[in-house]
Amino acid sequence: MVTLGYFLASEPFGPRELVDQAVRAERAGFERLWISDHFHPWNDAQGNSPFVWGTIGALSQAVDLPITTAVTCPTVRIHPAIIAQAAATAAVQCEGRFILGVGSGEALNEHIFGDPWPNAPIRLRMLEEAIGLIRRLHRGGVVNHDGEFYHIEDARIYTLPEDPVPIYVSGFGTRSTRLAARLGDGFCTAMPDRDLVDLFRAEGGGTKPVQAGTKVSWSQDDTGLEYAQRLWSNELLPGQLNQTLPRPADFEAAMPLISTRAVANNFATGADPDMHLAHLRQYIDAGVDELYIQQIGPDLDGFFTAYEKDILPALR
Known about the structure:
Elements: E1 3-8, H1 15-28, E2 33-35, H2 52-62, E3 67-69, H3 80-93, E4 98-102, H4 107-110, H5 120-138, E5 143-146, E6 151-155, E7 167-170, H6 174-183, E8 186-189, H7 194-205, E9 210-218, H8 223-232, H9 241-244, H10 248-254, H11 260-266, E10 268-270, H12 273-285, E11 290-295, H13 300-315
Parallel strand pairs: 1-2, 1-11, 2-3, 3-4, 4-7, 7-8, 8-9, 9-10, 9-11
Antiparallel strand pairs: 5-6
């Protein structure tokens, strides 16, 4: 049976709004939380991007739900040793109910210091080294490391949870999915792709948890589709654009490539429960264990009421 969680989007909402949504999600019957980790929003219309670790600290005091970052890039913008410390603190704050979701990142967030943006194979090598370093630091004691990409000297994390923080790895293609199967304690994806889930399990993932996140735009009228088009059509950009475009302005320039029909075909919008259920069941049919749902539009009252009354019970 799939576990249903709420997806906190740091790009269109500020930290206080995210905490409020988490409280409402817990009351509505959502069982877990995903939260995105960005320096920039995808486009200026989204308008936010709070520091995720500050928000997680507030969430730890407001709700009792498990929290996963979806996902943190521990390779360029923030050194993996700092991510290791942040994740350890979050796990202590959440009394063990914290999972570090990691991925190879996007230029949108990672280019800000002027570092060159590596190609995908190098990014995955960086991610593998970063994961190993984070795990060494989470075991405690003094760590020295002189690797291909990272160097630390006499580093020790003093505030540690009782158990090491689980690390789930994001995958959107075969190469990253194989890496997730080999290294991750679980798998994160944003696509209802049965082939990727099966690949993860076959390549070593076995029965490890598979998490997936998706977005819906619940509304009583056509504005749900309008919000999905204006705020999140970037998700449908082809090829490597989501990984390589460096600025929100570049995404805004590319988003007119996505038609309204494409948005309508890829997002559940409006108030019809059957449309929402059909959209979400794609992920369940793909074999995910945990499904996280984000509300795009502003009608949070309508969303949480509908999901508490109709959608969540039907999926369970």
